[in-house]
Give the backbone structure.
Amino acid sequence: MDINFWGFAYTTYFAAPYLRMTNGKIVVIASSASWLNAPRLSFYNASKAAVVSFFETLRIEFAPDIGITIVTPGLIESEMTKGKFLNKKGKIVVDQDIRDVIMSIVPVELVRKLAKAVVDGACRGDKYITVPAWIRTTFFVKLLCPEVIDWFNRWFCITEPRMPPTEAISKKAIDLPGLKDIIWPDSIRCPKIKSN
């Protein structure tokens, strides 16, 4: 929460007076995890949901002086999609097996496509930007039938008690021969990823 939420809150607090004077814009990089509730990422999901709610409220309070665009990307090539995580001791580690369990068969979008969509959308004054576009459908599924998303995540990503996470169906699915080559960019399929 310190970085994913408070980092936004403090920065906005100090920047808001200057943005008001110039009719500036705020571009918020949140995540589709704010509504998708990906298993094994509860604190991350909660922090991103808090960010979205915070800026949706500020959009009302700051209008019309400051425009706010909230970006809710799906999986984008990044250090996280390469398998970098904080372990229980707060140290950065690379764990591509857990990455495979969490990401599974969800396609990963190139960061340059996200960057272009963000710049274009912010210039247009879009309220929301979601890349890849297909991830928007999950918002409506969650809105209309939340139990479908919950059931799928439980069935696909969670193992029985005392079974390792790598036994999840999500890990077995992504390990099908050739699948990573089709749905993941080269940048995250590299067998050697540095932890620093």
About this structure: The two ends are 22 Å apart (CA to CA). The longest helix spans residues 2-22. The CA atoms of residues 43 and 119 lie 28 Å apart. The beta strands are 25-29, 67-71, 84-86, 92-94, 128-129.
